[in-house]
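Researcher: Quick test of sequence recovery. Tokens follow.
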């Protein structure tokens, strides 16, 4: 909004020329989202505690310590993230850019699904929430709309193509199959972050790291000169998503202030589904879907651990891990929660660097 209102006046007020630069507005989005989180956080947490009473229902089949340490903690803290991301993005982004609205649509749409799920868990005092099939159907519908819009907006040679990291000239033309793949990426990323969100701060920091990586990727992909220099495929308009990524980083930092162990609030599905969907949508816009699997490798690992555990138990009656997702496995082995969280953050950082290397190694 500031860009649309103030940049046209740059001839009269030279200072307003700053709003031309995506880097400046991205920094502004980080700071604004962080400030909103700090200012609104205490009030939001008090409101959630007042409305929820006993807080988020804790799984009885989870680690025993959770029944003691996490009892009474309110959920739906993802509302604070969505508030900060949305207001900051609307304030600093170019609102004529359709990619901004598409990614916001996915983020808020998935956030609404997550909010409904969290509300049912709290109101019914059980851990089931929204039926899985209904939740998945809602995610698929939103992803289908987003994928269709992104395909129409993308350059013709990229509209239904998937790029392959490390190969500068490889484009896999998937035709209509690309829509299915894009939907899979958005839905998969959303649920992968949701699975990872099982310990205080565990999902928040890796999402922030991935958002920082995609802020750089979107900026470079949308910049014709940099895209040509790095020999990556140019997507006009994608640079504006750096502002959204900045807002996500700032909102994540602000939320972590309240979510750091011992957490004052959980993000719940409201936050995890939304942030995962946002990462998936950004990877589809920038044509870096495979890179998301590298940068978000921690989320992939968590998801695979659940799939392996379920498949092994159904086929052989034996469990591969002491408990799935894999972060609970390490808790069962005796690792303290902060140890698991920080070591997983380190893994996420290493994977982010690996994902960034794909920009140059071609």
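Model:
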């Amino acid at each position: 909004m500031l860009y649309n209102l103030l940049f046209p006046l740059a001839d009269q007020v030279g200072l307003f020329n700053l709003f031309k630069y995506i880097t400046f507005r991205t920094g502004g989005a980080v700071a604004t989202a962080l400030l909103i989180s700090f200012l609104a956080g205490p009030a939001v947490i008090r409101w959630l505690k007042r409305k929820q009473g006993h807080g988020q229902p804790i799984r009885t089949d989870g680690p025993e310590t959770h029944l003691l340490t996490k009892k009474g903690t309110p959920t739906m803290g993802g509302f604070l993230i969505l508030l900060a991301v949305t207001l900051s993005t609307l304030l600093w982004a170019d609102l004529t850019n359709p990619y901004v609205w598409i990614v916001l649509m996915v983020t808020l749409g998935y956030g609404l699904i997550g909010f409904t799920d969290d509300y049912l868990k709290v109101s019914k005092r059980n851990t089931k929430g929204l039926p899985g099939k209904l939740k998945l159907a809602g995610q698929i519908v939103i992803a289908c709309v987003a994928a269709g819009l992104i395909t129409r907006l993308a350059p013709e040679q990229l509209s239904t193509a998937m790029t392959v990291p490390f190969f500068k000239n490889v484009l896999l033309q998937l035709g209509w199959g690309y829509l299915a793949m894009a939907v899979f990426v958005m839905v998969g990323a959303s649920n992968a972050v949701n699975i990872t969100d099982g310990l205080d701060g565990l999902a928040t920091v890796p999402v922030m790291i991935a958002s920082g990586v995609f802020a750089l990727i979107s900026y470079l992909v949308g910049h014709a000169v940099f895209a040509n220099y790095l020999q990556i495929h140019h997507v006009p308009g994608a640079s504006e998503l750096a502002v959204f990524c900045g807002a996500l980083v700032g909102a994540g930092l602000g939320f972590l202030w309240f979510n750091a162990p011992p957490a004052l609030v959980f993000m719940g599905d409201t936050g995890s589904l939304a942030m995962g969907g946002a990462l998936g949508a950004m990877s589809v816009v920038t044509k870096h879907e495979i890179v998301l699997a590298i940068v978000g490798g921690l989320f992939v690992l968590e998801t695979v651990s659940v799939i392996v555990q379920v498949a092994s138990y159904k086929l052989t009656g034996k469990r591969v891990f002491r408990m799935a997702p894999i972060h609970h496995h390490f808790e069962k082995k005796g690792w303290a929660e902060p140890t698991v969280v920080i070591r997983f953050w380190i893994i996420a950082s290493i994977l982010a660097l690996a994902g960034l290397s794909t920009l140059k190694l071609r």
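The longest helix spans residues 22-52.
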